[in-house]
Predict the 3D structure of the following.
Amino acid sequence: MEFFDKNRIGIILNRFSEDILYIDEILPLTFFLLMGNFAGIVGVVILIATVNASLLIPCILVNVFMVFVQMFYVKIGNALKRLEFLTRSPLIGYITATLDGLTTIRTSRIQDTLRKEFDQHQDLHTSCSYMYTCCEHAYHMMQAAEEIILLTFAIILFLALDDKMTAGKVGLVLSQIFRLTMPEHFFYVMITRFQNQMITVERILEYTKQKQESKDGLVMEHWPKECDIRWKDVSFSYKSDQDHVLKHLNFAIKNKQKVAIVGRTGSGKTSLISTLVRLYDFEGSIFINNVDIKTLPVDFLRSKISVVPQEPTIFSGTLRENIDPRRQHSDDDIWKAISNVNLSLFKTLDEKIDLNLSICQKQLICVCRALVQRNKIVIFDETNASVDSDTEALLQKIITENFAESTVIAIMHKLRYILEFDLVLVVDKGVIIESGDPSSLLKKKNGVLSNLFRKQ
Ligand SMILES: Nc1ncnc2c1ncn2[C@@H]1O[C@H](COP(=O)(O)OP(=O)(O)OP(=O)(O)O)[C@@H](O)[C@H]1O
């Protein structure tokens, strides 16, 4: 989960779409062009060398020199281009903000101040842009110098040293020198492009080196027999520099108890549940049926706990794939679960699910998922938050009747059915500030739960 907290979905999608596109299609093409231009340079140099081998020396020297020039040009050119982009954004932002606030500027009579500030932004951008153009021209001058040096050398060689040279061969060498700079230029352009595009490979490789969840631990057969859960001095924060969102929690839930967790938004209810399924590392210990859950493999632990999440997730696929994605249950069990939640929408299990189902219907499919799993620990994370009152009543009936044999933890904001629970935990700022059976908590005069209940 830390990975998803740190990497926004846009960035992840970008890696799996654009970066993969670069690796699959654009990078091979760049490599192909790079090699093509390289072959072009080698071809021209060999052709020149067949006329007079001593021309190889200036060709190689000049090319080595140009490699160094190119190295500087790429670094400086890229940095200047980046600066140009960077200084352009404030300029455009300034224009937009000025246009938006024209009336305020005029009534405050600060046109001159703004003009000066705009000029500063403009000057900065223009100087970067000018520096980039200068850099480009300097590079083109170097290319021209390369041609001139080679031509001078060839002409001196032919005029002063080689009397037997025919006009045709001289013409061939001179024309080929002119043809040398073009593939050279593209070769360097392609090298730069190739280097830039290789960053996509680096970024994808980064994803292969992510910190992995440890899957080590002991798988225990027939575990858990009884589902009593105990939090022992549990503290937790999402980031190392953040205050603890759960603080030294110590409490226990008995086997088959129906527990409601109540509290203001941001009080730490979901975080408390995420410790139970080990979505994050936490301090302290949690025991289920006297086994420290940190000693179990996470997959095994999670397979023993059903979670009906706050936001129902439906996959594009059939009804069967949605309720029983691992194909572990019989058709009868699935139909039984569907009839328990009164979903009369579907005729066969192989019917494709319409992703535009209402939130209520999606929520009921998620409940079906939990029903067929028949786990001994079931968590409802604000499942009743966005459902109508009939569905809310149905969900409550499912908790008390269908999950009678399971330990149920339900996070809830709506307190209409609070009396149906055996235990209520009121959480605030990561600590449990009130706990007990709902009827006695509701009787308390200035109790937190009774106040919340009265307000609702
Ligand atoms: N992924 C996260 N990264 C950093 N902080 C988080 C993250 N998720 C929650 N928090 C913070 O942890 C605290 C507890 O959040 P949590 O979601 O557990 O509260 P909650 O009681 O379940 O709230 P809600 O009722 O709105 O779902 C809040 O201050 C929240 O801002």
